[in-house]
Amino acid sequence: MVAAEIITRAKWGDRDALAEIFREHHPAVLRYLNGVAIAQAEDVASQVWVDVASSLRRFEGNNDDLRRWLFTIARRRMIDVFRSRSRRLEQSVAEMPVRVGAPGADASTDQVDWAEDVLRRLPPTQAEVVMLRVILGFTVDEVAALIDKSPGAVRVLAHRGLQQVSRLLTADGRAPRDENSTSGVTQEWPAAMERMR
């Protein structure tokens, strides 16, 4: 968690303070962009940090506000990427390229890659809500504000997304065969999700 003092120092140009904010939040921003199927997630994340550096002075708030602000910027950049490709945001995630793990990756990397692949097979909005709620731990109200939907719509998207994850886990032989349950999600995903945080 980034202290208010560090945020203030970063606002006034302290590079060490900005670097600390980057170290704290960059991994989650990158996971978010990877999880919603942006092939050039690293490039988009870099642009997010350029935007942050250029507009941080106008930022007001605490660490939680900073986190929401960062993800709002990341989401807007993600939408820009989809627009620049003349693609609609609602395009199937399954058509986007799947990131391949590095050669010799260990089992935990394989689990994370597998979990990211499952997310990519969800419709984009469901994948985004599952990523924000389950993996990154945003509240329903925070997600609603980020994606400009009602809290009820976020709950429905999360529920449907988790049901679809459960179906995908079942199809992959990793969950019980109850299609109306999201319990399969909790049997296979915890380790992979923890590694994605």
TrEMBL record:
Stated name of the protein: Unannotated protein
KW Signal (keyword) present: no
GO BP annotation list: DNA-templated transcription initiation
Lineage summary: unclassified sequences, metagenomes, ecological metagenomes
The RNA polymerase sigma-70 region domain, residue ranges: 21-88
GO molecular function: DNA binding; sigma factor activity
Similarity comment text for this entry: Belongs to the sigma-70 factor family. ECF subfamily.
Keyword Transcription: yes
UniProt xrefs under SUPFAM superfamilies: Sigma2 domain of RNA polymerase sigma factors (SSF88946), Sigma3 and sigma4 domains of RNA polymerase sigma factors (SSF88659)
Region (Disordered): 172-197
UniProt entry keywords in alphabetical sequence: Sigma factor, Transcription, Transcription regulation
RNA polymerase sigma factor 70 region 4 type domain: residues covered: 116-164
